[in-house]
Design goal:
Radius of gyration: 53 Å
CATH architecture of the largest domain: Alpha-Beta Barrel
Strand content: 15-25%
Strand order of the largest sheet: 15-16-18-19-20-21-22-23
Number of helices: 24
Number of strands: 24
Shape: rod-shaped
Oligomer: single chain
Helix content: 55-70%
CATH class of the largest domain: Alpha Beta
């Protein structure tokens, strides 16, 4: 009887005649070799599966999947073949080639399926169990189809329990392999290596256990009379060694290929990482370019970006000879918005203004925010284009009210324009000339447009020279003088105060009034030096007047708006009073309404500190600011000065008379004395006397003159009011 076909017989089907072979055994060295083959194959497969998980290209995944499947299939099949060669029985045994190849194909199918599930990212437990059943049945099918390839006089019968156990082992081994592969991927590199080796040893043991459990289930039965023989010393050992060597070589090559592939993939990933970094670098460069050349608030060009674009535009127009308009725009009274409504409202205003300027321009025009509330526009002009019309469109855009912090606000804009090539050939020259024109617009009432002309340059040059001369004058304490205008008390008729007014005796330009140089001092940061000089000179003159017989006479000194924002001002006044030994009650500090209201809370604290020294306080030019009456009662003042604009026509204008009368009544209600400025006629004087005004000053009594003339014109105990009455 021969063992032919793929049918499986169990011990319950043993024939009545026949003999059971009991002296079958296995070569231990070949058994050990088969386990090594199974373990190395498992290690190779796990390595390839781990590598397969990281391969991105589909074609390479297919190649590596096929390689991994062949590796595992070859290992299982070789382990089976060597295990069969290790089996020793007292009958002749050979193998059918076709069925043996069929068993290899079955092993390959099972291996590919196992590799597929190993390469999955995180399959669920139920899917892993189903895969283990399919893979285990595939391995079992490979084993028993390989067993069916045996050709021998004996017939194979299987123990049903051990047969079932072998299949269960195959399924369990497959499930264990899938689980171990899942945990191999986690942890440190060292842990992963140890887990992979351990998993390979477990998988090798599981595969070998399945095979040898299946072999234990095998029982060989020979017909009666079949001659038995001892196993001859044939070339099976050499065959085993050849198969094992080839298998190990294939597995080693698979491991080497996997290692090389991993290194190549690492190189590819490094290359991809470099490419990603290069892309990120390009993006960062673009972001830096955006930050470097664009204003983040308005999304317009900033000054650096503008300079680059303007240079190219200027070069182009220099070649073509076309006219170019450079426009500087400045939001009028922008600081008020920041101070009153906050910086968030100021930022929103800048965004709205930027949008409106852009809406008034053409696509080819360039617009940039230079910083703060200053914008610059460069417009290419056609032969019939009018830059004034373009500027007018921008001013028109500003007329629409803007909603800020729940309020509707109308803002205006001042514009200065220079033209290429008439007003300059370089970018710096054109920008400087446009800035001079803007300065002229702001100085002439704002919300207007001015073009550059050579006079503005001459004026700027003159002011620059004045700035340097004024610096030297303050440094050398030579050239500044104080003029005084008397303030007359209407009740006593006597000289009550002197208002100190600084003059500059310039060596080339003669006597200059404050209108010519105060703004220069404020703009260039030495107004505090000028104010200190005036205060010191006034204190010294007060001491001289007291010695000349003017006890109790006050001198009123004007304080710059910039100094009123300086927290050190009270300390400086105290030091001057101490150094000059001047009585504090003889000094009066005059501050303008607009200076007070720019930061009312800070001003109140500063004025209270000054008043605590004993210095009197006066508000100058009252009525010319805004919200005056609302804040007046909060200010620690002694005197209120009515601006000359209300006094000028008071004899003829009923409206002015009502305003002045209301101011006097309100001031008295607040326990303030009232000084009327600009009194030039007896009619004005009579009206003020009638309305109860306390003090007056003006050309009716004297223009500002040096201290020596004051002493001559107004000697001690003199009543200037009586002189004026006698004159008229």
């Amino acid at each position: 009887m021969t063992m032919e076909g793929l049918s499986i017989r169990f011990l319950v089907d043993l024939p009545e005649q026949g003999r059971l072979l009991l002296d079958c055994q296995h070569d231990p060295w070949l058994v050990a070799l088969s386990y090594v083959i199974a373990s190395v194959g498992s290690l190779s497969t796990l390595t390839i599966a781990r590598h397969l998980d990281q391969v991105q290209r589909r074609s390479m995944r297919l190649v590596w999947g096929l390689l991994g499947g062949l590796c595992l299939a070859g290992a299982i099949w070789s382990m089976h073949f060597i295990g069969m060669l290790a089996f020793q029985a007292p009958v002749a045994i050979r193998y059918d080639l076709a069925i043996t190849i069929l068993s290899l194909l079955v092993a390959l199918a099972a291996a590919l399926l196992a590799l597929y599930y190993m390469a999955m990212p995180r399959p669920g437990l139920s899917r892993q169990l189903l895969a283990a059943v399919i893979i285990g049945l595939g391995i079992s099918a490979m084993h028993y189809s390989g067993m069916a390839a045996i050709r021998s006089p004996a017939q194979a019968y299987y123990h049903s329990g051990l047969f079932t156990l072998s299949i269960a082992i195959a399924i369990s081994a497959s499930f264990a392999a899938l689980l171990l592969n899942r945990y191999v991927r986690h942890g440190s590199q060292k842990r992963q290596r140890w887990m992979m080796v351990s998993a390979a040893l477990v998988m090798g043991a599981a595969i070998a256990s399945m095979h040898y459990t299946g072999m234990a289930a095998l029982n060989l039965v020979v017909p009666e009379g079949t001659p038995l023989q001892l196993r001859s010393a044939d070339n099976s050992v050499q065959l085993v060694l050849i198969v094992a060597s080839i298998t190990l070589l294939i597995l080693s090559l698979s491991l080497a290929a996997a290692w090389i592939g991993r290194k190549l993939d690492d190189k590819e990933r490094d290359l991809q990482r470099v490419n990603t970094l290069l892309v990120q670098l390009d993006q960062a460069k673009a972001s830096l370019e955006q930050v470097a050349h664009f204003d983040p608030l308005t999304e317009l060009l900033n000054r650096r970006g503008f300079n680059r674009v303007f240079a190219a535009t200027l070069e182009e127009h220099a070649v073509t000879g076309r006219t170019l308009a450079v426009m500087f725009l400045d939001i009028d009274h922008f600081k008020r918005i920041n101070d009153s409504l906050g910086h968030d409202a100021g930022d929103e205003l800048l965004r709205v203004v930027a949008q409106r300027i852009r809406a008034a321009l053409r696509e080819r025009d360039i617009i940039a925010r230079f910083g703060g509330d200053e914008f610059c526009v460069v417009a290419s002009l056609d032969s019939n284009a009018d830059p004034r019309g373009l500027a007018a469109r921008m001013l028109e855009q500003m007329k629409e009210p803007i909603s800020l912090a729940g309020r509707k606000i109308v803002m205006t804009t001042s514009v200065g324009i220079s033209l290429f090539p008439q007003d300059g050939s370089s970018a710096d020259e054109l920008l400087k000339h446009a800035d001079l024109a803007l300065y002229q617009s702001k100085g002439s009432g704002r919300n207007v447009v001015h073009f550059f002309n050579p006079y503005l340059k001459q004026k700027a040059s003159f002011e620059l020279q004045l700035e340097e001369d004024l610096r030297q004058t303050l440094l050398q304490d030579n050239g500044l003088v104080l003029y005084y205008q008397p303030i007359i008390d209407l009740r006593s008729g006597a000289l009550s105060k002197l208002e100190a007014l600084v003059r500059w005796n310039h060596p080339q330009h003669g006597l200059l009034t404050p209108e010519r140089f105060i703004a220069i001092a404020e703009a260039n940061g030495f107004i505090d030096q000028l104010d200190n000089w005036v205060l010191r000179r006034a204190c010294l003159d007060l001491n001289s007047l007291e010695q000349m017989g003017y006890p109790g006479l006050k001198i009123a000194v004007n304080c710059s708006a910039l100094n009123l924002a300086n927290d050190q001002l009270p300390g400086r006044i105290e030091q001057l009073l101490t150094a000059t030994r001047c009585p504090a009650h003889c000094l009066e500090l005059e501050v303008t309404e607009s200076a007070l209201l720019s930061n009312i809370n800070r001003a109140i604290g500063l004025l209270e500190n000054i008043r605590a020294l004993g210095v009197s306080l006066s508000i100058d030019d009252f009525g010319t600011g805004y919200s005056s009456l609302a804040y007046l009662r909060r200010l620690p003042l002694d005197t209120l000065k009515v601006d000359r604009s209300f006094i000028q026509d008071v004899a003829n204008s009923s409206q002015d008379r009502e305003i002045v009368h209301a101011i006097i009544a309100m001031a008295h209600a607040l326990h303030l004395k009232v000084v009327a400025e600009g009194v030039e006629t007896t009619a004005q004087l009579a009206f003020l006397q009638e309305r109860g005004c306390d003090q007056v000053q003006g050309y009716l009594f004297s223009k500002p003159v040096p201290l020596e003339e004051i002493v001559t014109l107004f000697p001690p105990h003199y009543r200037p009011l009586e002189r004026v009455a006698a004159r008229f």
